[in-house]
Amino acid sequence: MADHCEALRSPNAWNFALSLFILFGILISYLPQHYRIIARRSSEGISPYFVLLGTTSGTFAFANILTLPTSRADLACCSQISAFGCFAGTLGVAQIGVQWSCFTVILLLFLLFFPRASPLSPPQPPKSAAPSYRTAVLVVGICIVHIFLTVIVHLVFIYRFPLLLKSCAEFFGIAGTILAATQFLPQIYTTWRLQAVGSLSIPMMCIQTPGSFVWVGSLAGRLGIAGWSTWGIYLVTGVLQGVLLVMAIGFEVRDRRDRKNNDADGHGRTNGAVRNGNGTAEEGQNNERTSLLGGEARS
Fold first, then answer.
1. Does position 289 have pLDDT exceeding 60, yes or no?
2. Model pTM?
3. For residues 287-296, average pLDDT
4. pLDDT tens-place string over residues 113-151
5. DSSP for the chain?
6. What is the pLDDT at residue 37?
């Protein structure tokens, strides 16, 4: 332990700068998504199962790094080294904590601005297969219960089974990796079905996709091969998010080209028509789906 703490007293300047850059990068990367949902006053186009898997995998990832012996040793050294050394040595924990917090905000915004049928509008056809508000509430409830259960398991292993902490951390990591590996599949399906970006933020994905691989390198350098259960999560999500990003950009380019062609032909919005999430035109009347806070969802 003494040798480990001594190594943290003088952190490598390059690693510290990179880790700090990643920390702020994670925070900034989520802001466009938060803003887009709030600005549109709708979370339409975001799959509830994407939110469920993203939140639960993030919870497991946070629990994983808090349970890893390496991270616990870093935290234990904080009482023996300077505040700067402690801050630099625990940036890996802070990075995953910020990522989990930011995705939890998406979970809350998803429910808060979930599109609901207006009492004055005709009912949605069954073939639309749009998720119900009950599904959104269920997703949030499951995520909250999962957080509490994960905290309880984490504390039980710390105080009752300390010798099994590494196995517990690996379980959290493997579970998080499995959830993360499937996290983007429902969203890829939803975006493909809608043929539109909806409330997804392309700027967020443009920042996060390459950032995921930089983050993997940073965590792998800090935790080594033994920490594969931590950085493996972000390697998988980086690849799948890249697939979603390419799809979203393709739909956005197509829609902009269509709008440009319509404007050039003089058809634009002459008849008050707007493009809906399925790529078809509908009359510019009251929106059929409104968020929990009220107001029409804006494109």
1. no
2. 0.77
3. 52
4. 998 765 555 555 444 567 889 999 999 999 999 999 999
5. -HHHHHHHHS--HHHHHHHHHHHHHHHHHHHHHHHHHHHHT--TT--HHHHHHHHHHHHHHHHHHHHSHHHHHHHHGGGTS-HHHHHHHTHHHHHHHHHHHHHHHHHHHHHHT--EE-TTSPPPPGGG-PPPHHHHHHHHHHHHHHHHHHHHHHHHHHHT-GGGHHHHHHHHHHHHHHHHHHHHHHHHHHHHHHTS-TT--HHHHHHHHHHHHHHHHHHHHHH-GGGHHHHHHHHHHHHHHHHHHHHHHHHHHHHHHHHHHHHHHT-TTTT-EEE-TTS-EEESSS-SEE-TT-SB---
6. 95
